[in-house]
Amino acid sequence: MTQINPLMPTSTTPSLIDTSNPNALTSEGLMMYLQTRLTSLDDQINGVFQKQKNIEGVRKALMKIQNELEKLEDDKGKKGLVGTKHEVGKDEAEYEKNIKAAIEEIKAIDPKLGAQMEKDLNEKGQIMFVADGLYFTAEVGASKEYVNNMMKQLESSAQLEMIGLQSTMSARQTAIQLATNLISALNKGTDSIAANIGR
Questions:
Q1: Are 172 and 38 in contact (CB under 8 A)?
Q2: Any idea where the domains of the chain sit in the sequence?
Q3: What pLDDT, in 10s, does the model give residues 133-160?
C-alpha cells in the first residue's frame, strides 16, 4: 500500500504556492497592486477635497444672493412692492448686479448648476423675472425659498461626500497596513536567507 505524505500535495490537493503558474501572485505583484490601489484611493480623496472646496464656493455665492434678498425684504414698499423702480436695462439696481455676479461665481465653479439657477430665477414669480428694480414681496419670498432649498441640497451633498471620504480613508489605511506587513515579511525572509548563507 502506498504511503501518502500529508505534507506533500497530491493530484487533487493544490499546492499553497503554484510555482508552475506564471500568473501566480508574487510578492512584487502584490506590492504593485497595493501601490496602484493607494494611487487610486489618493485620487478619490483628492477628488472629494475638490468637491468640498467647490461646494463651499457655491455656498458662499448663495449666501451673497440671500443677503441681497434680505436687503430687499427689509425695504418695505407700497402695495406689496419692494425695491426702487428704474428703467429696464439702465442703471441696474445694486442688488440686481450683486445677484447676477453671485450667479456668475456659481457658473465658474459649476456651469450646469449656475445656468440652471439663472434660468430658474428668471422665471415668472422669481426675483429676476423683470429686472426693473421693483418686485412683489411674493417674488422675493419665492426666491428666498429657492435659495434656501439649494443650500439644503448642498449641505446634504457635503455630508454624503464626507461619509464617502471616511470610507475611502479607512480603505487607504488598510492598504497601507497590508503593504507594511508585506514589506516586514519580505525583510524577515531576506534576513533568514542571509543568516542561513552565513552559516
A1: yes
A2: 55-182
A3: 667 788 888 999 999 999 998 888 888 8
Q: Which of 13-17, 147-151, 189-193 has the lowest mean pLDDT?
A: 13-17
CB proximity list for 137: less than 8 A, separation 6 or greater: 73, 80, 81, 82
Global pTM reads 0.64
Torsion of CA 134, 136, 139, 145, to 10 degrees: 110
Q: Which DSSP helix (H) or strand (E) runs through 93?
A: none
Beta strand 134-136 pairing with 81-83: antiparallel
H runs (alpha helix) in 75-129: 94-109, 111-121
Q: Residue 3's CB: how many other CB atoms inside 10 A?
A: 4
Please state, in angstroms and rounded to a whole number, the distance separating the CA atoms of residues 34 and 42. Answer: 12
CA 118, CA 113: separation in Å to the nearest integer?
A: 9
pLDDT in tens, 45-93: 888 888 889 999 999 999 999 998 888 765 555 445 565 555 555 556 7
Q: 176 — phi, psi (to 5°)? A: -65, -40
Within the chain, strands assigned E span: 81-83, 134-136
Count CB atoms within 10 A of the CB of residue 68: 24
